[in-house]
Amino acid sequence: MLKPDKYDPLKLSVGHILDIIGEGWSMLIVREAFLGTRRFEEFQGRLGIARNILTARLKRLCANEILDRVPVKEGAKRHEYILTNKGKDMLPLLVALSQWGDKWVFGEDKVPVIFLDRDQGEPISGVQVFSTGGKVLQPRDIMVIAGPGATREARERLEELNKNE
């Protein structure tokens, strides 16, 4: 798998995220974990993924603390894979990807799944980006600046981009 600095010289978060979950199987495994899949055989059967690939992806997701590998019961040789808090925080990403695909791949009238609020039984709202004041933001409303962990190259690039705005 490529390292983030090979395709993201600025070393921004997106490059690192893609290194962890950027190839298709990893995100499908995370989706299945959200749907309640826990055991190796269940992941394999539901996804139709080769054992060696599934093993590698599960190890990587566990190493990056997206999933936790825990014994089915104390002392058992069989394990389950459970979403960690870090993994659960991927829910907005999963929903956003699904909603984007519904709109741009399938079309609104051919949506394959609908996310519902369990209590209300109503479809959830589309994922959007809001200001701290609650305003829905569009790309033109957002400016990106260097954060405390930015590299020198990232700072220079972002300063250059913001000068041209």
Overview of the molecule:
This protein has 8 helices and 2 strands, in the order αααααββααα. With 165 residues, it is mainly alpha-helical. It has 2 domains: 4-89, Arc Repressor Mutant, subunit A (Orthogonal Bundle); 128-165, no CATH class. Strands 1-2 form a two-stranded antiparallel ribbon. A hairpin with a 7-residue loop joins strand 1 and strand 2. The model has no long low-confidence stretch (mean pLDDT 90).
Please outline the helices and strands.
Blueprint: H1 4-7, H2 13-21, H3 24-34, H4 40-47, H5 51-63, E1 67-71, E2 79-83, H6 85-88, H7 91-106, H8 152-163
Antiparallel strand pairs: 1-2
Could you write a compact summary of the structure shown?
This protein has 165 residues and is mainly α. 47% of the residues lie in helices and 6% in strands.
Instruction: Using the alpha-carbon principal axes, give the shape.
Output: globular
Round the mean pLDDT to the nearest integer and report it: 90
- Summing up helix and strand content along with how strands pair, one would put the structural category as mainly alpha
Instruction: Catalogue the unreliable spans.
Output: none
- Identify the CATH architecture of the largest domain: Orthogonal Bundle
What is the CATH C level class of the largest domain, in words?
A: Mainly Alpha
Distance between the termini: 35 Å
| Number of separate domains | 2
- Count of helix runs: 8
List keywords for this structure.
8 helices, 165 residues, two-stranded antiparallel sheet, mainly alpha, Arc Repressor Mutant, subunit A
